[in-house]
Design brief:
Helix content: 25-40%
Number of helices: 14
Distance between the termini: 29 Å
Structural class: alpha/beta
CATH superfamily of the largest domain: FAD/NAD(P)-binding domain
Number of domains: 2
Shape: globular
Length: about 500
Amino acid sequence: MQHNKKNENLSDFDHYHRVTILGGGFAGLGAAIKLKEMGIDDFVLLEKASELGGVWRENTYPGCACDVPSALYSYSFAPNPAWSRVFAPQAEIKAYLFDVADQYKIMPHVKLEHEALQATWSDADECWIIQTNQGEFRSQFAIMACGPMHEPVIPNIKGITSFDGEIFHSSRWRHDIDLTGKRVAVIGTGASAIQFVPQIQPDVKQLTIFQRTAQWILPKSDMPLLAPVRAMFKFLPFTQQLMRGSVYGIFESINGGIQSPAAMMQFQKIAQWHLNFQVKDPILRKKLTPNFIMGCKRILQSNHWYPALAQKNVNVISDALIEIKGRTLIAANGEHCEADVIILGTGFEIADPPIASRVYNRFNQKMSDVWQGSAEGYMGTMVEGCPNGFLMFGPNIAVSSSAFIIIEAQLTYIMDAIRQALKLGIHTIEPHPEITRKFNEEVQAALQTTVWNKGGCQSYFIDKNGKNSTVWPWTTFKLKQKMKHFDLSEYRVNYKPENATKVTQ
């Protein structure tokens, strides 16, 4: 099945569907699979690019891999016994997504190169109206599965637009640029930088790292999965399920620990040992020692980051880049360097979801204008004034675990909502304002004592207003339990019994 060519076989489809899915990453693909399982074939998946893949299509930088073991970074209903490593590389994860799309026969529902420019709920037409670069689509339900990890953050640095060399973001990697013998500057030391820096370090003439904030980094228990292990996973599937369960337990213990600064200080000892063991130079070690409690920022894992930084051709400037003059880069502390190439490892818009600037509620208000920088919804999935609109990876639903834990919990919730709506003849569902307000008060109160809020750092979990509008403050057990059933009593519901439809249970 072709995944990278426009689907012409959909030209005879009507542009009204029961459900429209926006985005062809793992969240959107999962939604499509679950709709089919429920017996709903009247849906379309709109993908802006020429192939599916989401974050794993966008990021192709050297060393790109998952930082969650592949046994847990996959659908629970579609295990892959063929992973080559404990932590799967980018190309394998993307291939897995394609394989699952084929296995569940999703591609006939996909419209590639259809970018959603605007999605508006219309009370007059009683549906979502989605404007794309290739025409208009309408549907009773919309599942916005666009994800946060695809809109790169480009820093506002004086002189950046007039840099005399090459410059690109890590998620827009320029494979046509040979870095051999070049002077390279890397801005940022987050999850992407710790993967690509060790890959490019041996080739470049000089590598300068601009580190605004040092990171806590744990050792990464990565290794090849040998043929006998892969065979065991294939022929004894329960062994891979056991591995998935044990990995889930480890991540859940870290996720639980983040709720207690005292507990995270114990985890931090592992990261401190890792730093002491791999960095012998006391000056460099001091530069690389964070001044916040581990877990306040995303917890990173690498066996190669510290050794790369200790090499003779690498210099770490422990301050932010503030100005570029020609090919001279100047840090806030006055240090400077010359560079031929700048690589921006500056991450993505997380607390300010890009989709919010394209979604309009029933009052024709842009979601981003309503939020004013602080995203808010109910159960991280629905937003006031947006009937029948479901947001994957919505406000306050992120956890320190696999994205698939969130995806599958949300899909259980969303599918139960759609199932009940069709079965009972419900025309619209939207969050109840008072219940939503109480829920968000509980979320913010629970976050106050966590490391995310009290750990002493400025992270992408915290929005521009200083509010944590990103993280789920409780366990993933609680997340899955609360999303097991869609409770209609918590929502405003508009019935049209004559529209009731039979659905697969």
